[in-house]
Design a protein that fits this description.
With 112 residues, the chain is mainly β. Helices cover 0% and strands 54% of the residues. It contains no helices and 11 strands. Strands 2, 4, 5, 6, 9, 10 and 11 form a 7-stranded mixed β-sheet that branches. Strands 1-3-8-7 form a 4-stranded antiparallel β-sheet, with no helix packed on it. Strand 9 and strand 10 form a beta hairpin. The chain starts with a strand and ends with a strand.
Length: 112
Amino acid sequence: EVQLQASGGGLVQAGGSLRLSCAVSGFTFDDFDMGWFRQAPGKEREAISCMSLNDGTTDYADSVRGRFTISRDNAGKTWYLQMNSLKPEDTAVYYCKAASFWGRGTQVTVSS
């Protein structure tokens, strides 16, 4: 059974930082894309960052480029989203995704 566990959310003041983690287990694929999404209240879920396990290429939404960094451990079983210079508009539930599998969200709240 594939399981993704996201963690690291919380409450932070604007300008602060958080690091989200996503641990995957039960995965049999050797090559997959991993990513982070978020959904703010009343808005659709949006993709904010992704990484290819195969070649490590990354991509970011314009709204987070330069502030957020996606990375992974060497085994590719845990990946991270380092979020710096957080803004109130970054407040959302953050989700990790591996291939077609979703993890449960973790709440990030940025106070002004």
